Amino acid sequence: MAKCSCDFRFLLLAAAAAFIYIQMRLFATQSEYADRLAAAVESENHCTSQMRLLIDQISMQQGQIVALEEQRKHQNQECGQLRALVQDLERKVLEKKIDKVQVPVAAVVVMACSRADYLERTIKSILKYQSSVASKYPLFVSQDGSDQGVRSKALSYDQLTYMQHLDYEPVHTERPGELIAYYKIARHYKWALDQLFYKHNFSRVIILEDDMEIAPDFFDYFEAAATLLDSDKSIMAVSSWNDNGQKQFVHDPYTLYRSDFFPGLGWMLSKSTWNELSPKWPRAYWDDWLRLKENHKDRQFIRPEVCRTYNFGEHGSSLGQFFKKYLEPIKLNDVQVDWKSMDLSYLMEAEYVKHFADMIKNAKPVYGTDAILKASNINGDVRIQYKDQTDFEHIARQFGIFEEWKDGVPRAAYKGVVVFRYQTPRRVFLVGPESLQQLGIEHIKTK
Question: Where does this protein have coiled-coil stretches (predicted)?
Answer without folding.
Answer: 58-92
